């Protein structure tokens, strides 16, 4: 199931940078503010550059394109385009930029007949190289989203260049002792930083740092003959898990054999005791020993051909040099895109190329040295928003991420190409760094995509703090829903202005910078309006019983004030239980499982982001389900040109005992996003219980986070998620079967009206 990568506090913190300490003037600047009409030819050329940049970066199959540093290229490219003075110069500039890295690309005057495609001499059985993108792989090979050129290994693997072989055991019986791992290993890794190693990790409880770790990085094995190696270290008094095994770093092959795990005294003399370790020498024909072998870019094999250290077999780890295609569809030689880019320029670009031992065909006939030197001179990390090149380059990169990999343009009605023009105009006009005007430009761009997972991370974003109150937009007003300073401000009070600015004006300004559904934007904006720097003050005007009053609050809380406090698992009345799926640990929930299963009714609270509680759904099922409600797009052409196939995915849950016998309800609201919507999707689709509250955020699917030049980052949803009946979830959200909104009167009285409504449902016989 999809897990949302951002906590609410992180999103609030980004919002606060823009609205927590600034006045309305900065927030209400028009989205297309910027250059005068005479600068529109420059915008036209930047649009044309941006479009060709996305085509070549993500879809040109040439080896030269795949080897290019595209972040540097974007920075260099916009600088060259800005220097153009006339249309003829623009054509030459674009050719000088792209031809060295995209052989076979043809640029010609818009409206003219394209020149003949270049002839390529290749063997009849020559491999064909073409891009395949399984979702937002973006040229990388990850666990969910993957990109690959056929007949090529990926340039970058998620998790790094390590193939690992591992096992884990419970550390509790060995706390306060020492652990010792011994094994034999050998390698055939050639030159470079390729090596074989053993490793041991002893993890401490509650994720505390300081556990023992040794991976032999200071004494790796590169010998072709068998070497016995040893790792020894302490097991902390609060250790929870011991993980151990072998790894191959980089390219080549490594063999492992004859593992031995022992425990002994902390110090002084004493006997070491061998721990039982199934299949320590890989003599079994299956994986009965429980070894984990799951690294990207590596394969594993119980080798009975090469000499083992002991016995007849060893475990071989090998880097993969020939990768299978990601899916069946792929472009074929002769397939190309032919697009009018704008600014008087058209382009025809091949989507597939033949290859020989020297690389893809044809080779570039342009001298790449000047371009390589220009890119090498750029340090993207050293640039900030005061540099016009960075501002424009990041707009180009972010726009293309959505243009080619965002799977919801059929749901979201937006002229995305016009959004590129608006963002480029704004980025040209932004001339600041610290004030965050450029950050607003990027956030307005992703806000237009209406994706609750979409956002922009910034190097300007630091810790933000809350005053001692929680706020929500209720009945057309910004209402205090909880206060830790009841002597001065109470739940139910209405905030009418913030630092002298009308509260609704501040709310609407904030919403304009948040991507997602209307309900998500509203809940995020209302909850984050009061954020600011630590120990800074916010001046508020409020109403209580129609009487106005003013006060100033200090921002001293590093996290949001929680909702009305309640135990994670609580019996509300005889036979009716409350379970807050945002709080309890799996162990605590499992401990109460027999009681909950026999209860007359159970109310699950998912008004926000849940912990790891989705397994509880298995105890609500009467039969197995096989619904594929997630889908990862299979992309071979730019601009989401159909036909576009999808790889279907689903949880495919099996029923588990004990099965809940009583009534079940779920509480939710617009704070519930992503993983929460995965859980509630099952509830809605399989009719597992009533859903009480309001619509969820409407953004689900694994998030793709992309680093940008200058320390920025962009995120968005990379897969399509629908409801179980096939209808859209995006922006719509999971709808309650029993609608219920909190009221200001209820908040003032300290009531949880949504919970009360659920109680009335489960009480019924």
Structure explained in plain terms:
The structure is a single chain. The chain has 765 residues and is of the alpha+beta class. The chain has four domains: 10-120 and 333-457, no CATH class; 162-319, Jelly Rolls, CATH 2.60.120; 469-554, Roll (Pdz3 Domain); 569-709 and 725-762, 2-enoyl-CoA Hydratase, Chain A, domain 1 (Alpha-Beta Complex), CATH 3.90.226. It is 23% helix and 27% strand. The protein has 17 helices and 35 strands. The strands form seven sheets. Strands 2, 3, 16, 17, 28, 29 and 34 form a seven-stranded antiparallel sheet that branches. Strands 5, 8, 10, 11, 12 and 13 form a six-stranded antiparallel sheet that branches. Strands 19, 20, 21, 22, 23 and 24 form a six-stranded antiparallel sheet that branches. Strand 6 and strand 7 form a beta hairpin. The longest helix has 20 residues, at 40-59. The protein is globular, with a radius of gyration of 29 Å. Residues 1-35 have low confidence and may be disordered.
Topology overview:
Elements: H1 8-19, H2 24-27, H3 40-59, H4 63-66, H5 70-82, H6 87-98, E1 106-109, E2 128-134, E3 146-149, E4 162-170, E5 178-188, E6 195-204, E7 213-214, E8 227-234, E9 239-249, E10 253-264, E11 273-274, E12 298-303, E13 314-319, E14 336-342, E15 345-350, E16 352-356, E17 359-361, H7 369-376, H8 388-405, H9 416-429, H10 437-447, E18 455-457, E19 469-474, E20 477-483, E21 494-498, E22 501-502, H11 503-511, H12 518-528, E23 537-544, E24 547-554, E25 569-573, E26 576-580, H13 586-591, H14 593-598, E27 601-606, E28 630-635, E29 645-649, E30 663-668, H15 675-686, E31 690-693, E32 703-707, E33 713-717, E34 720-721, E35 738-739, H16 744-748, H17 753-762
Helix pairs in contact: 1-12, 3-5, 3-8, 3-9, 5-6, 5-8, 8-9, 8-10, 9-10, 11-12
């Amino acid at each position: 199931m999809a897990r949302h990568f951002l906590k609410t506090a992180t999103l609030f913190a980004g919002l606060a940078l823009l609205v927590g300490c600034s006045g309305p003037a900065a927030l209400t600047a028009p989205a297309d503010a910027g250059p005068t009409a005479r600068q529109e030819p420059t915008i036209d050329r930047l649009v044309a550059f941006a479009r060709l940049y996305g085509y070549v970066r993500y879809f040109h199959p040439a080896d030269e394109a795949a080897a290019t540093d595209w972040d540097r290229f974007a920075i260099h490219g916009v600088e060259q385009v800005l220097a153009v003075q006339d249309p003829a110069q623009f054509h030459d500039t674009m050719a000088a930029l792209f031809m060295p890295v995209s052989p076979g690309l043809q640029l010609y005057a818009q409206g003219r007949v394209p020149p003949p495609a270049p002839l390529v001499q290749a063997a009849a059985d020559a491999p064909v190289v073409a891009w395949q993108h399984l979702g937002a792989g973006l040229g990388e090979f990850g666990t969910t989203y993957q990109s690959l050129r056929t007949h090529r290994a990926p340039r970058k693997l998620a998790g790094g260049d390590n193939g690992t072989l591992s096992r884990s055991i419970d550390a509790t019986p060995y706390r306060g002792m020492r652990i010792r791992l011994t094994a034999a290993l050998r390698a055939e890794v050639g030159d470079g930083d390729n090596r074989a190693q053993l490793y041991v990790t002893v993890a401490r409880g509650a994720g505390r740092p300081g556990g023992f770790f040794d991976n032999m990085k200071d004494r790796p094995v590169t010998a072709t003959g068998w070497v016995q190696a040893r790792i020894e270290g302490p097991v902390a008094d609060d250790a929870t898990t011991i993980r151990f095994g072998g790894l191959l770093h980089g390219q080549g092959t490594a063999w492992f054999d004859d593992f031995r795990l022992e425990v002994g005294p902390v110090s002084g003399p004493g006997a070491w005791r061998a721990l039982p370790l199934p299949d320590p020498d890989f003599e079994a024909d299956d994986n009965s020993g429980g070894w984990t072998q799951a690294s990207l870019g590596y394969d594993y094999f119980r080798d009975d051909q090469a000499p083992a250290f002991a016995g007849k077999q060893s475990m071989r780890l090998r880097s993969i040099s020939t990768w299978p295609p990601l899916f069946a569809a792929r472009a074929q030689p002769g397939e190309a895109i032919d697009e009018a880019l704008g600014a008087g320029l058209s382009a025809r670009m091949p989507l597939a190329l033949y290859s020989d031992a020297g690389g893809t065909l044809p080779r570039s006939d342009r001298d790449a040295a000047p371009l390589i030197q220009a890119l090498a001179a750029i340090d993207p990390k050293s640039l900030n928003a005061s540099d016009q090149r960075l501002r424009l380059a990041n707009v180009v990169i972010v726009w293309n991420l959505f243009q080619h990999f965002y799977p919801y343009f059929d749901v979201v009605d937006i002229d995305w190409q016009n959004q590129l023009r608006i963002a480029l105009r704004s980025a040209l006009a932004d001339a600041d760094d610290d004030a965050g005007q450029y950050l607003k430009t990027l956030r307005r761009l992703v806000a237009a995509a209406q994706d609750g997972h979409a956002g922009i991370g910034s190097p300007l974003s630091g810790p933000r703090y809350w005053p001692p109150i929680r706020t929500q937009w209720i009945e057309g007003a910004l209402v205090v829903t909880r206060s830790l300073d009841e002597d001065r401000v109470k739940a139910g009070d209405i905030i009418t202005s913030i630092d002298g600015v009308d509260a609704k004006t501040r709310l609407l300004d904030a919403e304009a910078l948040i991507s997602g559904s209307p309900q998500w934007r509203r809940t995020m904006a209302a909850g984050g309006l009061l954020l600011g720097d630590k120990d800074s003050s916010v001046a508020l005007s409020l109403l209580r019983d129609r009487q106005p009053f003013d006060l100033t609050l200090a921002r001293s809380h590093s996290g949001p004030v929680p909702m009305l406090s309640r135990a994670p698992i609580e019996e509300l009345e005889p036979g009716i239980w409350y379970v807050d799926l945002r709080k309890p640990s799996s162990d605590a929930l499992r401990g109460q499982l027999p009681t909950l299963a026999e209860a007359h009714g159970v109310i699950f609270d998912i008004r926000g982001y849940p912990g790891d509680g989705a397994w509880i759904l298995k105890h609500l099922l009467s039969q197995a389900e096989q619904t594929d409600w997630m889908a990862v797009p299979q992309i071979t052409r730019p601009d989401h040109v159909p036909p576009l196939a999808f790889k279907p995915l689903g949880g495919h849950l099996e029923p588990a005992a004990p099965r809940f016998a009583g009534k079940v309800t779920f509480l939710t609201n617009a704070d519930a996003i992503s993983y929460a919507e995965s859980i509630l999707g099952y509830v809605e689709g399989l009719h597992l219980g009533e859903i009480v509250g309001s619509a969820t955020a409407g953004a689900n699917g694994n998030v793709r986070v992309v680093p940008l030049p200058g320390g920025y980052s962009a995120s968005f949803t990379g897969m399509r998620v629908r409801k179980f009946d096939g209808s859209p979830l995006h922006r719509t959200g999971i709808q309650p079967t029993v609608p219920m909104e909190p009221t200001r009167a209820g908040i003032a009285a300290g009531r949880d009206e949504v919970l009360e409504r659920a109680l009335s449902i489960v009480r019924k016989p």
